[in-house]
Amino acid sequence: MGALKISTKISIPDTEFDLNFSRSSGPGGQNVNKVNSKVVMYWPIAESSALPQDVKDRFVAKFGHRLTQEQIVIITSDKYRDQKRNVEDCLEKLKEMLLEVLVPPKKRRPTKPSKSSVQKRLSGKKADSDRKKMRKKIDF
Question: What's the number of domains the chain is made of?
């Protein structure tokens, strides 16, 4: 299997992953009753030395629902009929998740609306108000 290459600087050695195999509920007909093709991958993210701490923190914040209380990521796959392709699918899922949190999000800089946009909004509100005033009955 080798290492899971995330970027030019980050790759996770395969020794950090724990793989369990079981019978799948996916495609395969009668074959699923006798072949362990489903893969459950466990990865203790807190103990991983391959990722910088800020990437770990963003991962936990975004994908906390996939973690156990011991900070272990659980990814499953029974998409394919054979074990090898399901292992690759698990690794691909993890890679996509890590690529989402690899780059920190840009900080939002608050901005003010321009004077012309404020003026345009207020004149639109005034026009709507005048239009509704015209609909009222005049009391004598």
Answer: 1
Residue-wise pLDDT for 22-67, tens only, equals: 877 756 667 666 778 888 999 898 888 888 898 889 989 998 888 8
Measured CA to CA in angstroms, residue 56 lies from 17, 28, 47, 50 at distances of 16, 37, 10, 10
8 Å CB contact between 77 and 96: no
- Tell me whether residue 134 is in a domain: no
Nearest CA to 6 among 103, 131, 71? Answer: 103
- Tokens at 38, concatenated: 């489903």
pTM: 0.69
Tell me the two tokens of residue 47.
């103990």
What is the extent of the structural domain holding 98? 4-102
Separation between Cα atoms, residue 33 and residue 96, nearest integer Å: 31
